[in-house]
Amino acid sequence: MKRTNSSTTTPTNNKRPRQTRQQLYALHDASKYGLAPKTYSSTNNTNSSNKAPRPSSNDVKGLSLSLDEITGKLKVTPKERKDLETFKTFLSFKTVSADGPRNGEYARAVSFLENVAKSLGLDTKIYELVKNKPILLCSYQGTDPSLKSILLNSHYDVVPAVNEMWHTDPFVPVEEANGDIYGRGAQDMKCVCIQHLLAVGRLVASGKRPCRTIYLTFVPDEEIGGVEGLGMFLAHSLAHSLTHS
Ligand SMILES: [Zn+2]
Known about the structure:
Layout: H1 21-32, H2 78-91, H3 100-103, H4 105-119, E1 123-127, E2 135-140, E3 150-155, E4 174-175, E5 181-182, H5 186-206, E6 214-219, H6 230-235, H7 237-243
Helix pairs in contact: 2-5
Zinc ion (ZN) binds at residues 155, 188-189, 222.
């Protein structure tokens, strides 16, 4: 039967809508880790009423976080709070591999990271070896340039998020009282991007200079093979200049 555009059309049965291939892949992956929701909604409704409980670090045996005994809230210092907010802001950039170069989110995320790096006292440079696919290179100069340098690499792109698999908007990071943070790319691997920056930032703040120069790279496209991300960087002469200067 031909569909009409009538806004009054209502579903005539409760049959589960056909899942897209992307949803099926996501479900398969989630099932492997015991994380698949028991029910699906075909709409973009992120209301969690029809979903299984969201996995929580509360369920992980042996994981001890510093929680307030009365409120159950994660205890953080003002400095840690600032770092957490930096991480959450970074999570909100929609750096999905296929979309980021087109919608400007790659550029915005890299600009954000560069500002964080500068605020920590690192030297920065952005390379655009492929149009709209920027690579951020940060460095902290060592005391002995004859030694090989250290490179900490991470990627800032993420895989697409299937809304039906999420309890909340994947690009509006949610922090729960116990410190759990949910957002697309929180683990793979935006947390690592921020960890690299903050760890080297602490080194800078301590006033200690390492013997070896430390480089940090933040690359796009890892989730789609990395050819125009790290691949491009390694093929470029600047990658060699890092260790042979
Ligand atoms: Zn990854």
